[in-house]
Amino acid sequence: MPHRARLLLIVRRGALALATSLLITLSGLMASGAARADALDDTLARFLADKFPESEQAIGELAAEAPPQAAAILEAMSENRLLFDPADRIVAYRNASGAVLNARTGETIADASGFRKVRVNNALRRAIEGATGSLTLAGSDPEKRIAAAEDVFKSRDAKAAPALKAQLARESDARAATALKLALAAIVAASDEASAADRLSAIETLRGRGDQDAENLIDAIDEKTADPEVKAAADSALASIRTRLMFWGAAQDLWYGLSASSVLLLAAIGLAITFGVMGVINMAHGEMVMLGAYATYVVQLLLPPSLQSWSLAFAIPLAFIVAALVGVAIERLVIRYLYSRPLETLLATWGVSLILQQAVRSLFGANNRQVTNPPFMSGSVHVGGLDITANRFWIIVLAIVVFVALQLVLRATSFGLQMRAVTQNRRMAAAMGISTAKIDMLAFALGSGVAGVAGVALSQIDNVSPNLGQGYIIDSFMVVVFGGVGNLWGTALGALMIGVANKILEPVIGAVQGQIVLLVVIILFIQRRPRGMFALKGRAVEA
Amino acid sequence: MSPQLDRIGLVFVVLLALAAVVVPVLALATPADSPFNIPPYLVQLLGKYLCYAILAVALDLVWGYCGILSLGHGAFFALGGYAMGMYLMRQIGTRGVYANPILPDFMVFLNWKALPVAWWGFDSFPYAMLMVALVPGLLALAFGWFAFRSRVTGVYLSIITQAMTFALFKEFFRNDFGFGGNNGLTDFKDLLGFPLQSSAAKAALFSASAIALILAYGAARLIIGSKYGKALTAVRDAESRMRFLGYRVENLKLFAFVVSAVMAGIAGALYVPQVGIINPSEFAPANSIEAAIWVAVGGRGTLVGAAIGAISVNFAKTWFTGAFPEFWLYGLGALFVLVTLFLPKGLLGLLLRPRRERAPTPETPALAIEEGADP
Amino acid sequence: MTLAESHNPTLTHSLLYLDGISVSFDGYKALRGLSLVLAPGEMRAIIGPNGAGKTTMMDVITGKTKPDEGEAMFDGRFDLTKLDEAEIAGLGIGRKFQKPTVFENHTVEDNLLLATKAPRGVFATLFGRDDKGVRRTIDRILATTRLGGLRARVAGSLSHGQKQWLEIGMLLAQDPKLLLVDEPVAGMTDAETAATAELLREIARDHSVVVVEHDMTFVRELGVKVTVLHEGAVLADGSLDQVSADPRVIEVYLGR
User: Fold this and answer.
1) Are residues A164 and A16 in the same domain?
2) Segments forming the whole domain that contains residue A363
3) CB–CB contact A537 C30 (8 Å)
4) Span B127-145, mean pLDDT?
5) Which pLDDT band holds residue A485 (cuts at 50, 70, 90)?
6) Once rounded to an integer, what is the mean pLDDT over residues A188-208?
7) CATH topology of domain C1-91+224-256
8) Which of A437, A499, B31, B124 is the most buried (most CB within 10 A)?
9) Cross-chain Cβ contact B240/C85 below 8 Å
10) Last-in-domain residue among A470, A489, A513
């Protein structure tokens, strides 16, 4: 078949042309800016042949040279709007409004009668796509250049190499230059034929990046090469990256642990107060947290859009008040009558928690409610290899603030003094004229109010739903048991240890097994120190 | 145990024995349109109540007589249920969707090639029944050994048992734990060759549940009546006094805890073929606490009261969730509050007026120098 | 125990041997180097002001509190600091608490039954049959403690004095080698006090007894060797007349 024979011929000739054009391109890179106009003319001339290899060649050159007209030409070509006049040797394109413009000069051509369409096949379309990608590499916006380089870093597309190199030669932005070097290094890593020198410089570049991707790429180089020098460089880089990764990994785990601890602390510290003072376990404590979260949701509903970014300033006091009032109601109506019967208090407050959950479900519906983060609590910051989300960060701050505030209340107010007296020896405190009933009530208000504030924090990271509190009650209690009754430092340390231990155990043995291990440790711990880490000792406490 | 309570217990046992005979007869031998006919769904429902009653008796043995408010009994119940469920799964055989003779459907679906070791032997009924008792029993033994030796008491113990339940709850949700994950075990076909959907199987399961309840009550009653039972109650009232008398309190508690867990496991095993499914939600901590309120409603430390409480609360639940589904949780919550506040001795306590001067409620520490962790 | 210690004649001939016991709670020293030796068959009264460490001493002997330092040996052989409450009770040390602690929901008879010397294991108690010997012991104790008419009463309904006696009865049922009795006559009438003293003397005939008491009349009535504790250590010992003549004791009691 003559058609096929011609095609073969074209392919052969094309390959030859490709080789020569590569040479031309490389030499073109060396050439000064003044030479570029001629290069563009040469490139455009290739379209006049209207042969696929020639066109492909031209696309490659447009991408590498990145003249200002390139984007428009490539776009027109991909949409079959690129035209040429074989007689006058002019390349042009039809724009969206139907006018025909000279591709070289951008001037409008009045008479387009002699023009024919440049033919495009699928292979060319792919080439155009690649070329458009590398064109953004040459764009004027450094952010876009970085993004394009990062795309190449991920795709490791060897075709982008010339464009990358071209851009690197004229790059002025330091960050963009780094991104370009990394993209080139990724291509080298993926290539089977790269030279030892290229590989060495790629390893050096990747070593600077030092993350998981870099590790994988260097690993790939290490596998492909036989050169001892490259191998040695790769091994040393790998070791350095792994150490670095381990360090940042541990730091990230620690951060997650700290974040989990802060949530635990917020949820548990109120429980530590109510449990510490009265020795009763309030199973509805989780529902105080839940009410706080719903208070945040209500604030978000009611606030006008102009005040939305201040929503937390309204939500925190409202959550405290709502939860404190409900807490006092529970204490006055139920718990007060059950002081000598802790197990029955547990059951009764569980009943209260069911009622509260159902009440919220009736009011707000059973579905999750969405609370949006205020602007300062969204987004995240990278510190080295660490990823720090703003909402988690502010929750840690809130936990510290609440902790310090509570310490001040307990240490510096007469209410705090009386509360500590009741915690340590209820009968003696009563004998000294402290109204234990009043202290109980106020302690309950305080503990519940703090739980409400915890709810505000949780609404920022968790779904707001009627059973929000259920997930926290068991862990909170563990924290209080671990930390010792009636001692906030103990609670803080307990939260810290449980939160961090959980996050460290989780990747090693799984979340659930981690919990089980923790449970066993806590039981063993109770055996050693039945009253927690910071418990008061002595006969007075046991009487 | 007062003689009065024993008389009530005897009446209860006689009624149960009668029901074990009469219910199947009415269900199977009367025509469907007869006013005496008991439809299969009702037989099944009553059987379910009886399983709950067994669980309540088990819980009362440790809570009412030993002061251990276990919030882990729902887990023991569910473990027994899973053991039975595994047997029923293996009985499905080639009748499953994937018709694999060995692997249950969910394993084929998860693309597992071999039966996990934990499932070995569950095609044998005696082995499965052994596991029904052994698995909850061993868990209770290990857990109790730790907790009681560590002298964890009171609310601390309750919360730690709840944490255990919660951990199992989460574990069973995982697909790769190997017990059907979220969906649990279901689509059972037959038990010992009898199709579970048949009225006869339902009636037989009802009778088996009634007999199991009688046996559980009888066993608990014998334990309570022995010197061991007296020692157990003494531990509840004054734990450290018992220590100074030379009793190994942890062993006394451990025995009751294990026996009780085994009972709960058996209840779960009878429950599963009647409801036709077992899934991780049976481990929900709320279930265990609900069982405690059955006991409290009926009357703690009465055994028979616990059974009556379980049956009546669950009857109320069935009716309520049918008539006013919105309000059931309000009702249940109120029940928790009102019973603990106004009816600390439960329905039977109301019935049994104390013959002599009031004895202190068991919860009040009878010892001034009680050294337990209870605050 | 080292070889040298095993040849300590004081130790080998003692029933209870406390040497240099110290206990502190959060910095507060409840006992500071307390030493005390009790011969087999001896009855000893311990007196001392509040906070002298009497109850803590009892706690150490019965295994409730572990001493920070010091040696506590029973019968010349058993290291009490290494045993728990139940094991120590099993060795034959019985304790009566300051506040009467009986099983309030059990009958008087069941209280005694639980205390009676018998195997304490789960299965022994679960399957144990009614023992004629145990019945007789209980009958005898009920007679001694004058609670015969109350055997079917719930212990919670007894009067304070009756509870004290029931607890002493439980100690008798335990049949220990050593009885530790903490303020047995607190809250008793004079007649009851006299009767209790008589009862204790009777018990002391075949048991060793340590009595902690504030009531000097009662201690005088017992007529035994007295040890005075002060600030966690022994201040003086001897007969009641001897110690009450000791100027240091007078100073501690009268604050001069």
Assistant:
1) no
2) 248-470
3) no
4) 95
5) low
6) 80
7) Rossmann fold (3.40.50)
8) A499
9) yes
10) A470
pLDDT value at A187 more than 60: yes
Residue A405 lies in a domain: yes
Same domain? For A154 and A57 the reply is: no
**With an 8 Å Cβ cutoff, are C99 and B230 in contact?**
no
Amino acid identity at A147? A
Sequence letter at residue B33 = D
pLDDT at residue B365 above 60?
A: no
Share of chain B above pLDDT 70, in %: 94
Q: Does B152 touch chain A (CB under 8 A)?
A: yes
The three-state (H, E, C) secondary structure of chain C, written as one string: CCHHHHCCHHHHCCCEEEEEEEEEECCEEEEEEEEEEECCCCEEEEECCCCCCHHHHHHHHCCCCCCCEEEEEECCCEEHHHCCHHHHHHHCEEEECCCCCCCCCCEHHHHHHHHCCCCCCHHHHHHCCCCHHHHHHHHHHHHHCCCHHHCCCEHHHCCHHHHHHHHHHHHHHHCCCEEEEECCCCCCCHHHHHHHHHHHHHHHCCCEEEEECCCHHHHHHHCCEEEEEECCEEEEEECHHHHHHCHHHHHHHHCC
- Does C55 contact A536 at a Cβ distance shorter than 8 Å? no
User: With an 8 Å Cβ cutoff, is B368 touching chain C?
Assistant: yes
B139 touches chain A (CB under 8 A): no
| Interface with B, mutate which of A277, A336, A344, A423 (most B CBs under 10 A) | A344
pLDDT at B363: 39
pLDDT digits (tens, 9 = 90+) for C219-253: 888 888 999 988 888 888 888 888 888 888 888 77
Alpha carbons A366 and A358: distance in angstroms, whole number? 9
Asked if residue A222 and residue A129 are part of one domain, the reply reads: no
- A31 lies in the same domain as A167: no
Q: According to the model, what pLDDT value does residue A536 have?
A: 45
Can you tell me the mean pLDDT for A322-339?
Answer: 92
Residues of chain B with Cβ-Cβ distance to A357 below 8 Å are 329
What total of structural domains would you count in chain A? 3
Q: Which residue of C has its CA nearest to A543?
A: C99
| pLDDT of amino acid A30 | 47
Q: Which of B1, B150, B227, B253 is the best mutation test for C, with the most CBs of C within 10 A?
A: B227
